[in-house]
TrEMBL record:
Biased segments, Basic and acidic residues type: 271-296
Occurrences of domain ABC transporter (ranges): 8-240
Molecular function GO labels: ATP binding
Name this polypeptide is given: ABC transporter ATP-binding protein
Similarity field: Belongs to the ABC transporter superfamily.
Membrane topology: Peripheral membrane protein
InterPro entries: AAA+_ATPase (IPR003593), ABC_transporter-like_ATP-bd (IPR003439), ABC_transporter-like_CS (IPR017871), ABC_transporter_ATP-bind (IPR050166), NO3_transporter_ATP-bd-like (IPR005890), P-loop_NTPase (IPR027417)
One Pfam family named in its UniProt record: ABC_tran
Keyword tags: ATP-binding, Cell membrane, Membrane, Nucleotide-binding, Transport
Location relative to the cell: Cell membrane
SMART domains per UniProt: AAA (SM00382)
Length: 296
């Protein structure tokens, strides 16, 4: 049964910068169930981060609404935690202190000091960082920083976890390890997750549904693909699974056939427009010359 935990309702986003108006998102409608893992994929610049920022409450949409667990989202809040691609840890704090900062803020009323301490350790251990509590961000690797960022986000017990290309800056092996960790944590905690990715394999491996955005400007949801692969998922076994490869192909087809066609059509239209503009300018020049000759 669908419980529509999160709904994004007819969201439009238009930016105004230096007198120029640009519509980035148009009519985005999406409902997400509690415990669902959603991946958002689309070509660079189509508006994925803008959409995530609207759900996070960091950006206010031009129109439409985001409703989370019956409440409209109007500003950032502890019920939505975000993990960005570039680890956003405070460099002067230790690993423990980075997580403590979030926990002390969000759990001050629900947990006493000893319980908060235990909670911080538990979340850091869950991402395999229990051994590095006293290290500062400069002393740990990129993958480790991302693990701490995930621990910090999870420790806030958000209703929705928002991941903006969380593994985008990592090497392939570290990335694969973290994907495994996220799948294990997801199995254990059943978080509701929206993740932006450019990686088709990552999207298919981790998600319950893949939301594919059309090219901007005015990006829309082009297609939504249900990934009906049983969990737990094993990347090695899936590599030979025809269903996995079918889902992969579907996403690739959307990104590199359908959306490329749209792009080339737009380019052709642009080219025709430019040609017409050029011919019109030529006509006007000729007419101006004729008028000048007539005057002479
Ligand atoms: N604050 C802003 N003011 C003006 N334009 C913006 C702003 N934020 C984003 N944009 C524009 O909105 C469009 C979509 O940007 P966004 O970062 O959401 O895309 P994206 O799909 O996440 O891109 P990428 O995959 O490259 O990260 C871009 O053209 C960008 O320049």
């Amino acid at each position: 049964m669908s419980n529509r935990y999160l709904s994004i309702e007819n969201v439009d986003m238009t930016f105004h910068a230096k007198g120029v108006e640009s519509q980035v998102l148009k009519g985005i409608d999406l409902t997400v169930d509690r415990g669902e893992y959603i991946a958002i994929i689309g070509h660079s610049g189509c508006g994925k981060s803008t959409l995530l920022n609207i759900v996070a409450g960091l950006t206010e949409s031009t129109s439409g609404a985001v409703i989370l667990d019956g409440k409209e989202v109007n500003s950032p809040g502890p019920d939505r935690s975000v993990v960005f691609q570039n680890h956003s840890l405070l460099p002067w704090l230790t690993v423990y202190e980075n997580v403590a900062l979030a926990v002390n803020k969000t759990c001050a009323r629900t947990k006493n000091k000893a319980e908060r301490h235990e909670w911080i350790i538990k979340n850091l251990e869950m991402v395999g960082m229990g051994h590095a509590l006293d290290k500062r961000p400069a002393e740990i690797s990129g993958g480790m920083k991302q693990r701490v960022g995930i621990a910090r986000a999870l420790a806030m017990e958000p209703k929705v976890l928002l991941l903006d290309e969380p593994f985008g800056a990592l090497d392939a092996l570290t990335r694969a390890h973290l994907q495994e960790e996220v799948m294990r944590i997801q199995d254990e905690l059943g978080n509701t997750v929206i993740m932006i990715t450019h990686d088709v394999d990552e999207a298919v491996l981790l998600s319950d549904r893949i939301v594919m955005l059309t090219n901007g400007p005015s990006a829309r949801i082009g297609e939504i693909l249900d990934i009906e692969l049983p969990r737990p998922r094993d990347r090695i076994a899936l590599a030979d699974d025809p269903r996995y490869n079918h889902y992969r192909q579907e996403v690739l087809r959307f990104l590199y056939e359908k959306q490329r066609k749209v792009e080339s059509l737009a380019q052709r239209r642009g080219a025709v427009g430019e040609k017409e503009k050029g011919e019109k300018q030529k006509d006007e020049k000729e007419k101006a010359k004729e008028r000048a000759r007539a005057k002479a």
